[in-house]
Design a protein that fits this description.
Layout: H1 2-18, H2 26-197
C-alpha cells in the first residue's frame, strides 16, 4: 500500500514541481532530481528489478511454452505421419489382396471356362458318335428288316406257288375222278340196259 500511495504522492509532487513557474534555475531542477531519487529511487530500482524478473520469467515461460508447443506439434505430426503411413500400408495391402483375389478369380474363371470347353467338346464328340452309331443301327436294322421282309415275301411266294400247284394237282385229280365216275356211270348204265334186252 505504501508503494501505491507513494507513487501517487510522487506523481502529484512531481506534477506540482514540474508546474513551477519558468523562472526556476538549473540548480533547483538538479535538487528536485536528487529529492526524487532519495524518495523514490529504491522503489524504482525495485520495480525495474521486478519488471526485469517478470520480463525474464515471461520470456522463459514463452520460450518454454513455445518449446513445449513445438514438442507437442512434433509429436502430433509424428503420430499423424505414422497413422497416415499405417493407413497407406493398410490400403496398399488391401489393394494387393484385392488384386491377388482378382487374379485368383480370373484364373479360376479361365480354368472353369477351359473345363467347360473341354466338357462341351467331349459332349459334342459323344453326341456326334452317338448320332453316328444310332444312324448306323437304324441303317442296319432297316437293312435287316428289308432282308427279312424280302425273305418272308419269297417264302410266302414259294408257299403260295406250292399251294397253287397242289390245288391245281387236286383239281386235276378231281377232273380225272369225275371222268372215272362218269365212265363208271356210263358202264353201269350200259350194263343195266343189256340184261333187259335178253
Amino acid at each position: 500500500m505504501m508503494t501505491s500511495e507513494e507513487p501517487k504522492a510522487g506523481d502529484g509532487s512531481a506534477g506540482r514541481k514540474e508546474a513551477a513557474p519558468p523562472g526556476t534555475d538549473a540548480a533547483g531542477g538538479a535538487n528536485l532530481e536528487k529529492i526524487r531519487d532519495i524518495l523514490f529511487g529504491a522503489q524504482v530500482d525495485d520495480f525495474e528489478k521486478k519488471f526485469a524478473r517478470l520480463e525474464e520469467r515471461l520470456l522463459k515461460e514463452t520460450a518454454d511454452s513455445r518449446a513445449e508447443t513445438k514438442k507437442r506439434f512434433d509429436s502430433l505430426e509424428g503420430f499423424i505421419r505414422k497413422e497416415v503411413e499405417s493407413l497407406a500400408d493398410r490400403l496398399r495391402g488391401e489393394q494387393e489382396e484385392r488384386m491377388d483375389a482378382g487374379k485368383d478369380i480370373s484364373r479360376e474363371l479361365r480354368e472353369t471356362a477351359k473345363g467347360l470347353e473341354k466338357k462341351l467338346g467331349s459332349l459334342d464328340e459323344q453326341t456326334t458318335r452317338s448320332q453316328r452309331e444310332l444312324r448306323q443301327q437304324i441303317l442296319d436294322q432297316s437293312k435287316a428288316l428289308t432282308e427279312e421282309i424280302r425273305t418272308r415275301i419269297r417264302e410266302s411266294s414259294t408257299a403260295l406257288s406250292k399251294e397253287l400247284k397242289e390245288l391245281r394237282a387236286e383239281k386235276t385229280d378231281r377232273t380225272a375222278l369225275a371222268g372215272l365216275f362218269t365212265e363208271a356211270a356210263m358202264r353201269l348204265t350200259n350194263e343195266s340196259k343189256s340184261p333187259g334186252k335178253q
